Amino acid sequence: MLYDQTPLNDDKSQLIRDNLYLVDILVARMVTQVPSFMDKDDMKSAGMVGLLDASNKFDPSKNILFKTFAEYRIRGSILDEMRKLDWFSRSLRDKQNRIGKTLAELELKLGRDPEDHEVAEKMELSLEDYRSMLSQVGHLGCVSLNETLDHSSEGRSFLDTLADQRSDNKPGKRIEDLELTHRIAGILGQLSKKERLVISLYYYEELAQKEIAEILELSEGRVSQLHSQALIKLKTKMESQLY
Question: Cα 62–78–218 angle (5° rounding)?
Answer without folding.
Answer: 100
